Model the fold of this input.
Amino acid sequence: MDTSSNDTMSSLIDSALARLREAGYKITNARRTVLEVLCQDNQHLTSADVIEQVEARDPAVGRASIFRTLELLTELAIIRPTYLTPRTPNYIVMPESGHHAHIICPQCNKITELGDCEIEDLIEQIAERQGLEITGHLLEIYGICPDCSD
Amino acid sequence: MDTSSNDTMSSLIDSALARLREAGYKITNARRTVLEVLCQDNQHLTSADVIEQVEARDPAVGRASIFRTLELLTELAIIRPTYLTPRTPNYIVMPESGHHAHIICPQCNKITELGDCEIEDLIEQIAERQGLEITGHLLEIYGICPDCSD
DNA sequence: CGCCCAATTGATACAAAATATCATTTATAT
DNA sequence: ATATAAATGATATTTTGTATCAATTGGGCG
Done:
């Protein structure tokens, strides 16, 4: 049995909860449940997805709290909305480093995550040149995947 | 008087209109008006912004057509929704190359556009390694700007 | 140029998504 | 354990986006 992805998931949650607490916010049932849903390996959830899955885990959690939590987590850069589909944000959980990169196939919408990549050095250079203190980045590459290019 | 930004703007519009036509769509008043608004130098407009500004230019253009146009332009990758603010897409016009990069200061939300940058070579490499045909990319760097870091 | 006709539009009605309000509950520091 | 400010869930409401459909229009063709 493969526990590595669960380990990754739980450490992601732990890190996220720690960041929440450090920022002075309480760890509530609603917030923990939303984070549990977001940290599952099926990432890139829309708000509707999150509502549905939170509902399944704990029907007592209200809609409003889910939206409030998404907003708070975004503000703290713990999650980041992305735009795979027009007009419906998909949320991803950002690692503590604040760096994330993925490839999207515009035909089939398949997402390939790019773990740590060489982009980071380049970004450091840009940041230095512009005189800013970087806190993270999001890189989206649009590319027709092998399956779709046949 | 500085006309360069107007030149850039009108060529952006021209290129966008050409891409529309090439894809087999008609150049209509609604579509042209939406593109005019989007191509102004104050980029990163929300749909509400677009509706407001289109309304100001030509009250005859209907809400539904504005949404339809935003959807069509997104589908054709002529514009791209981004998520600078939680849950409200901001639209940017993509150049024909399909490459775009900007820096956002999470404190003041100031956006610094990065013209052509060195990222592109690196992206080509990644694309080749993954065996995909890239059509563009969007890079967002989050960084505290000099004004905010004082 | 002026006709044709599918594509597109605008108006209206409708559905879905997000937000404000507020009395009640809960997490946490002490 | 208790006090208390933060956070919640339920409800009502607003905002945002979509479906429908008769009327209009852009652009190719003669």
